[in-house]
Design a protein that fits this description.
alpha/beta; Aldehyde Dehydrogenase, Chain A, domain 1; Aldehyde Dehydrogenase, Chain A, domain 2; six-stranded mixed sheet; 44% helix; globular; binds nicotinamide-adenine-dinucleotide
């Protein structure tokens, strides 16, 4: 049965998770709309590419200034649809996008410009090489609901500045903020067909994966990422997969308890724990364990939970009912297996069904789902275990199928950096958690089941281009010695030639000879 027949036209509703108010309803895009959008993008992309990178950078500059002027409005829209406190919408979404624009404005030209490739193969010295970085064409982006503005916007900006057209399928839970991004980019001068948002559920995403896109940037769960990778493999569609995390926090015995406990509470509970980089597992040296538990539970109990539109709110609602149930089941499972609740532990129903109390669990271990190798909790839960020595904590931290990020807490920075090298993760922070996402120069992405490829920084930009090597011979009238005409004696001649090229003393002499011949030749010219 074709995807078209299976697809039932559906409507999606955007709901304010704090109040349950329906903010808007939209038709999901079906396979026909997806194919049409990709075809429009493909038809217009060569013109966008021909604008040149400097003109596209100017569009980004305008976008950045329009966003800056409208920052409060954008932050309010994010909070309405995704629940997070207004200040988090401003700092973890709007600021991240403003800064990613700054990075691209300042660096995209230097990173993407055509480069001459110097090479050291003496046999090929008549050849000059150029490396071109060309846009893929149409980039599909599929994004989640937890950072509904910063994730699609940073990926979109990198794709656009490189000369691609973008078709974005945002999460079905947060389509309105994606449409706001579309309006801002169009106001800045991005042509309509160069950036298109297609609202819809998973089926719309599946239709985008099946369409004629040239590259896919997917951010979401491991389960969906795996399904997408299998489909992409069929036609060798290049993909970047930014998937889940189960980030460990390692509190070494010389850590400052007050600083590390504040870091743990923020890292586990900001955005109600719905961050791919959230602290999901906390390991504390046994000497600090009791004091650390006291500090975390006291700080967690003081957090103000409520509607993110209220400026006093520190923790907003969760976004997804399914995810609240996962959190409940992880807490129940931990308690059944012997964990202790030191703070929270249940929904705050008096505030509404989507509010879950910041929860601190003690005496947890890897037999519990909340600390398991391959399940994210993705909610406001901070499970804390103790460890005896460095070897044990490194083993525990690496005992996971995920490898997105981790953090090490110590007063000794060089020790922290040494520990960072022992941990299997795409990013390791020393004395901070989560916030590296706002360093636009830094690569973002995971190892193991946390994904493939990188977004952000030069690495994220390089994901948006194909590398083409142009190899050009400067002596067009010369036949190459390696062409046909091998004949008797050619093989031993070539053996001597290899010795000449690669036996070290001979090679040094030869290089010197080539250099002086080159200098003589240049003088003659
Ligand atoms: P999800 O996998 O359920 O959905 C992500 C997106 O994929 C949504 O837009 C969804 O509609 C779409 N989708 C669902 N099924 C699809 C299919 N078969 N084909 C194509 N698209 C499909 O994830 P989520 O619940 O929206 O997001 C939470 C997850 O995202 C967590 O696991 C979190 O750790 C992860 N995440 C990772 C990063 C990162 O940078 N590594 C960042 C944010 C979130």
């Amino acid at each position: 049965m074709s995807a078209d027949v299976e697809f039932a036209v559906s409507r999606i509703a955007s709901v304010n998770p704090a109040t349950g108010e329906v903010l808007g309803e939209l038709d999901s895009a079906g396979p026909t709309e997806v194919r049409a959008a990709v075809a429009r993008a493909r038809a217009t992309q060569p013109e966008w590419n021909a604008w040149g990178i400097r003109n596209r950078i100017e569009v980004l500059r305008r976008f950045q200034q329009i966003l800056l002027a409208g920052k409060t409005d954008v932050a309010r829209r994010i909070t309405l649809e995704a629940g997070k406190p207004l200040v988090e919408a401003l700092l973890t979404e709007v600021l991240v996008v403003l800064d990613a624009a700054r990075f691209l404005i300042d660096n995209a030209f230097a990173i993407l410009r055509e480069q001459t490739l110097a090479h050291g193969n003496l046999v090929m010295k008549t050849k000059s090489g150029r490396v071109l970085q060309e846009p893929y064409g149409v980039v599909g982006i599929i994004s989640p609901w937890n950072y509904p503005f910063s994730i699609p916007a940073t990926e979109t900006m990198a794709a656009l500045v490189a000369g691609n057209a973008v078709v974005l399928k945002p999460s079905e839970l947060t389509p309105l903020i994606a449409l706001a991004l579309q309006s801002l980019l169009r106001e800045a001068g991005v042509p309509n067909d160069i950036f298109q948002v297609l609202p819809g559920e998973g089926a719309t995403g599946a239709a985008l994966v099946a369409s004629e896109i040239d590259k896919l940037i997917f951010t979401g769960s491991v389960a969906t990422g795996r399904r997408i990778a299998q489909i992409a493999a069929e036609r060798l569609l290049p993909v970047v997969l930014e998937l889940g995390g189960k980030d460990p926090m390692l509190v070494l015995e010389d850590a400052d308890i007050d600083v590390a406990s504040s870091g743990a509470v923020w890292g586990a509970f900001m955005n109600a724990g719905q961050t791919c980089l959230s602290v999901e597992r906390c390991y504390v040296h046994q000497r600090l364990y009791a004091d650390f538990l006291d500090a975390c539970s006291e700080k967690a109990r003081k957090l103000r939970v409520g509607n993110g539109m209220d400026e006093a709110t520190e923790i907003g609602p969760m976004v997804h009912e399914r995810q609240v149930r996962v959190v409940e089941s992880h807490v129940e499972d931990a308690l059944r297996r012997g964990a202790r609740v030191l703070a929270g532990g249940a929904r705050l129903r008096e505030l509404g069904p989507m509010f879950f109390a910041p929860t601190v669990l003690a005496d947890v271990d890897h037999s519990m789902r909340v600390m398991s190798k391959d399940e994210e909790t993705f909610g406001p839960v901070l499970p804390i275990a103790s460890f005896r020595d460095d070897a044990e904590v490194v083993r525990l931290a690496n005992d996971s199928s995920y490898g997105l990020a981790a953090s090490v807490w110590t007063r000794d920075q060089s020790r922290g950096e040494w520990m960072a090298r022992q941990i299997d993760a795409g990013t390791v922070m020393v004395n901070d958690a989560v916030s590296c996402f706002s360093i636009s120069e830094a690569p973002h992405g995971g190892v193991k089941s946390s994904g493939l490829g990188r977004t952000h920084g030069r690495w994220g930009l390089e994901e948006m281009v194909r590398v083409k090597y142009v190899d050009s011979d400067r002596v067009p009238g010369m036949k190459k010695i390696w062409w046909f005409g091998y004949g008797a004696g050619f093989t031993p001649q070539m053996e001597s030639f290899l010795d000449l090229l690669y036996a070290r003393p001979l090679r040094q002499k030869l290089r010197a000879g080539v250099r002086s011949a080159g200098a003589m030749w240049r003088r003659k010219l």
